[in-house]
Amino acid sequence: MRRLVDAMNRVSDVDAGWWPFLHLRPARTERMDNRRLARMALAYGVPIGLILYGWYVYVGFLPLSPAWPIACIVVAIAFLFVVYKFTFALAWNRRADWLRSEAPGVQPPA
Description:
By secondary structure, the protein is an all-alpha fold. The protein is 64% helix and 0% strand. The chain has helices at 2-12, 34-58, 67-86, 88-101. The protein is elongated.
């Protein structure tokens, strides 16, 4: 389990993975709370939902309609929130708790 958490945190630490929303990334010692997760899901979910809707229209799965893009966006946001909550936020919060419990400047073991 420790290796999985460390791997997920290595992915979360890469600046390119947060682009263009690097300002949403908390400090390593700061927990990812539900408000931050909601902002992240919103920031990433809107473009993903629109891309998903465009693809669904392109392949003929959904018709052009004002309601379907909104539905795709809402589903993408909800999906990302749940995925973030039980994967990256869990790993990030474990590391944040560990770092806050240790002496300043101490890094978690490799």
